[in-house]
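Re-run requested by the PI after the first attempt was lost when the workstation crashed. Everything re-entered from the original request form. Ligand of interest: LLP.
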Amino acid sequence: STNSKKNGDGALEVGGVDVRDLLAEHGSPAYVLDEDDFRSRARAFKEGFKDFDVYYAGKAFLCTTIVRWVMEEGLNLDICSGGELAVALRAGADPKRLGFHGNNKSVSELTRALEAGVGRIIVDSQDEISRLIELAAERDLVAPVMVRVTAGVEAHTHEYIATAHEDQKFGFSITSGAAYEAVARVNEAPELQLLGLHSHIGSQIFDSSGFEVAAKRVIALHARVSDELGVDMPELDLGGGFGIAYTTQDDPADPAQLATEMGKIVEHECRGFGVEVPKVSIEPGRAIVGPAMCTVYSVGTVKEVELDAGASRTYVSVDGGMSDNIRTALYDADYSCTLANRYSDATPTLARVVGKHCESGDIIVKDEFLPSDVQPGDLVAVPGTGAYCRSMASNYNHVPRPPVIAVKDGRTTVVIRRETEDDMLALDMGAAQ
Ligand code: LLP
């Protein structure tokens, strides 16, 4: 994060807090959340995209503290489950500022969203449209709806997180005509209010041409709806997915520049079709919270493993692993790391940072040069773990999930406490009390 540096001892300091002190007080491992960094990234999107609405995508990382920061910075919130809705409402979020996603929202989730007065429900299937019509009719309510469409673009990202090609579960296809049909149906239903189209092409995307192609196809549909149904939909959501730098090779876009580019495309296309420019919104998650957190681990064992041709690799085992960061194992994600508790001038050696779980795929950082004197008791920090690490954490092997400790101006605040063995055993109905 921006407010991190190595201090005179060579130890990592985040938000004015030495991570050695942080771990001594709060235990190891821990996620360290830089409040100022989070807020300034949120603000950069808000200010950069000043003509847009910005919905922070809570799936990247959500807790009540984050909801409050998001609301204070003037952003809205994208949620995609009853659980995320519960966090938002518990934090006192204005329901009007929530957008509710999901390809299989349950009757109970839809009911809660409707009754809470959620600002937009993004519908993803004909079944869901039927369900929403029925639920709204029973309550004599009108549900504000956006229609999730797939633009048929191949986003350049990992297959599991690309969402706008044809053969996947999300949205209504523009190409097949399903999207137009869905929009027409929503438009006819008196129980539904048609707000606009929604397109999200995938996550961790750097190549802006994907956004551009998708935006053009979505706006063409927006214009067709205006033409043939005589409805000017007031809104348009272009989703999230803006990539961040995990290693130094990546080159993330600046929000203001992205905004200018996206704004231009929308305006140009709308003008081309002679339709009014709708209110555009976007949904960044990773680009706001990703760089704002790092994970600090303690080294437990160091092992030298011989490779072919006389080469070797140092396996550095830390006190966490795929249960607090599944991204390396799941998406082959690249992370970097740094020795965080001291200065070392030992020669760098090729190291792999692995966890404590019982499988060899339990890798956090595939390849990194660490000082060759790295040893048990050292601390290792992995930057860029704010997005999709705590939110996808598990209890695999009954390893309790680490806490999230916010830092600011030299002070720490526990925003999510460490999970305990008692927490885990509390769900085990056979455990003696
Ligand atoms: N809007 C919608 C409708 C989404 O599905 C997503 C992400 C976002 C916004 C936010 O995307 P972002 O700006 O954070 O890239 N677990 C995967 C990422 C899954 C993304 C799912 N949807 C990972 O760790 O890379």
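Saved to the shared folder this time. The chain has a mean pLDDT of 95.
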